[in-house]
Amino acid sequence: MAIKYSVLDLATIIKGDNLSQTFDKSVRAAQKAEELGFTRYWFSEHHNMPNVASAATSLLIGHVASQTKTLRIGSGGIMLPNHSTLSVAEQFGTLEALYPNRIDLGLGRAPGTDMLTASILRRGQLDNNYNFEFHIQELRQYLSLENKNSKVRAIPGEGADVPLYMLGSSTDSAFLAAKLGLPYAFAAHFAPSQMEVAFEIYEEHFQPSEVLDKPYKMACINIIAADTVEEAHYLSTSHFQAFVNILTDQRQPLLPPEETQLGDMSNELAVHLNRMSAKTFVGDKELLEKKLSDFVKLNKVDEIIVSGHIYDFAAKLHSYEIATEVLKVL
């Protein structure tokens, strides 16, 4: 049986676009993903980033869900420490009522921003010992019908059939996903180093639940595809420049390939870039068929989540087309 394939969208702001144009491109990209047979289209929660417009994640999910018909729309993910579990239950309960059986709730514990911004989001309550498991269970309680006799209820939210997904970029999340019996999505698109070990931990320690009877592994990777290898590498320079900007803390809108400056980086920066982009796949259909087939066979993933920054919107949609041709037969 072929693996599923999905999209992670950061609502990336490209040079020359305003926010309305950015959101419009997310809608059109989701519509293209739906047409191509992608399973889900997720938005990630980030804050205080000049190149990322997905801060109000649930609002963006609702907007894109209203402009699509069958595609599952969700979070990849909501950073739970930034919110009360009651408000998350209410927001996603509302989304589920508006778009039944189409909403996903991926959960992470990272701040999705710098620590100063995280402190503001959390009203100064930065807790290094945040009990992620407790708050996931609290969220589950609000979403359950069993909560109807509680003094505090999530309305909307109570009884909402919103599937939960555990997100992670380290082995800590693997242990928790296994313990709770939840699907596990690893953020290999920017933090690939622990992916193999995390997947091994998840499989070894997995406890069947009412959600899953066996592990379900999702790998988020970058795919930048074009008709030729040369064109794909040209398009990928925007993506790698965005990574360099993260590493050097020089955030800015996504640059076109001709404005990137990758030729004069230090050896130390190049090493960090190579580590960060280890699960970035660039090429034409033929090259990607081999690379992605090897990746899926080696890691035995159930679903690929496609990420990747491409400046030219038409080229981005064409990259989705090529990726679909490859992924649907893996």
From TrEMBL:
User: What would you give as a GO molecular function for this chain, any one?
Assistant: oxidoreductase activity, acting on paired donors, with incorporation or reduction of molecular oxygen
Could you tell me which residue ranges the Luciferase-like domain spans?
A: 14-262
Stored Pfam families: Bac_luciferase
Domain of life of the organism encoding this protein: Bacteria
Q: Which GO terms describe its cellular component?
A: cytosol
Which family would the database say this protein is a member of? Answer: To bacterial alkanal monooxygenase alpha and beta chains.
The protein's name: Luciferase-like monooxygenase
Which organism was this protein described from? Soonwooa buanensis
Q: What is the lineage of its organism?
A: Bacteria, Pseudomonadati, Bacteroidota, Flavobacteriia, Flavobacteriales
